[in-house]
Amino acid sequence: MQIKRYRTKNIHEAVSRIKKDFGTDAVILSTKRLAVNDSGKNGHDLFEVTAGSSNSLSNSENNEIDCIINEALDDLDRSPGNFTGQDLHDHSSDKDNLLGLINSELTDIKEMLFLMSQSGGMPDFLHMNSAWLNLYTRLVKAGISSKQAQYFLKKGSALSSGPDAVQNDLTKEIINEILASIEVSNPFEFKNGEKYFAAFIGPTGVGKTTTIAKLAAELSLKQKKNVGLISLDNYRIGAVEQLKTYAAIMGLPFIPAFTRQDLHIAVKKMQNKDVFLIDTAGHSHLDNERMKELGGILKEDLSIRCHLVLSVATSRSDMVEAADNFAVLNPETYVFTKLDETHRRGKIIDQIMELKMPISFLTNGQRVPEDIVPATKKGILRLIL
Questions:
Q1: Which residues, listed in sequence order, are joined to residue 306 by a DSSP beta bridge?
Q2: CATH number for the 196-384 domain, one of 3.30.565.10, 3.90.226.10, 3.30.390.10, 3.40.50.300?
Q3: Which residues contact 88 (CB under 8 A, 6 or more apart)?
Q4: Is the confidence at residue 339, as pLDDT, over 50?
Q5: Which one of 16, 136, 277, 342 has the minimum C-beta count within 10 Å?
Q6: Which of 166, 160, 107 is nearest to 137 (CA)?
Q7: 4 phi and psi angles, rounded to 5 deg
Q8: In the chain, where does the domain assigned CATH 3.40.50.300 lie?
Q9: E runs forming strands in 257-358
Q10: Nearest in space to 109 (alpha carbons), one of 53, 171, 148
Q11: What pLDDT, in 10s, does the model give residues 31-59?
Q12: What distance, in Å, lies between the first and last C-alpha atoms of the chain?
């Protein structure tokens, strides 16, 4: 195997050349910033990156890599913030440290290649400062857009931090900035004797009916509230029967209502209830006619509070567009569903930054009533990262 050393102005340029020479088998064996007296022309700092292929090696090639490994370990001894010579002796063997080094470098190369494969490529700020590569890549892989990931790094002072900054402290600042962007609310925390009307709106197939069933079980069986179920969905085949079946299992009253007059009659019949959970017809957010029809039924005289249900499994652009169109119904909180169907849950952060509104509940499966949780800031961040 041929091993190559690359001297470049930045890490991004080195990765491009390594990718071209070795393809997907590339392994970075060492990286270091050259001393000031080794700087390139015009005063530019240089990086030296040694790379090879992860394919099987001959004995002679192994000897060559051993030399590079020893050089890398020497660099670790000299680098501030890394192992000292004493630290190395305290570990079980140099081989263990070597394995950790190579794994770390391999992770870096994979993350760089991942970022280069994205439509926007690798951001400029990472070209000369790879210290934030791992955190930035993790945010992007989690589904947070590049724009928002860079925003949080900037707010957390990462992009303006000097070489002496403590990375762990700055990482905490960035995490705190993300937490600060999240607002949560529990709409069912109200005084005894009050009535609460909650309508769940959103596109087709996001899980409104199942979410209502989960909430009905939580509120009636666990919190001992008097709950009534109403369905305004006269479009989807079987929608009324589905909620009716859930209601029968839980022993809760259920009334279908297809007009505004039907809704008033249903409320009057269940006047002894504390909580009214209202299912609405799922429809395209582009269907303005049906949006107006729904708005006409949910007028303000009943003080109906709307909650926007969105599936995290949909694309970021569709989620934003749906939220913008359903905004005419003045929703008060988000309910994010189907978190179990994607690993890229960071779209939640993008959505709440796009249209600011608190999150009330999250659902992560089809089980009723288990797969629903009240939203908390730390809980959301754990689900994303």
A1: 199
A2: 3.40.50.300
A3: 73, 76, 77, 94, 97
A4: yes
A5: 342
A6: 107
A7: -125, 145
A8: 196-384
A9: 275-279, 304-311, 333-337
A10: 53
A11: 677 765 545 455 566 777 777 765 544 45
A12: 38
CA distance 222 to 227: 12
Write out pLDDT tens, residues 284-328: 656 677 777 787 788 766 789 999 999 999 999 999 999 998 998
Answer positive or negative: Cα dihedral of 218, 219, 220, 224: positive
Read off the amino acid at residue 188: F
What phi and psi values does residue 39 have, to the nearest 5 degrees?
Answer: -60, 155
* DSSP-derived 3-state class of residue 51: strand
- What DSSP string runs through 94-163? HHHHHHHHHHHHHHHHHHHHHHHHSTT-S-HHHHH-GGGHHHHHHHHHTT--HHHHHHHHHHTTTTT--T
Residue 213, SS3? helix
pTM of the model: 0.68
The answer on pLDDT for 254 being more than 70 is yes
Q: What Cα–Cα distance (Å) separates residue 218 from each residue in 1, 15, 341? A: 62, 52, 23
Which tokens in the block code for residue 178? Answer: 């993300």
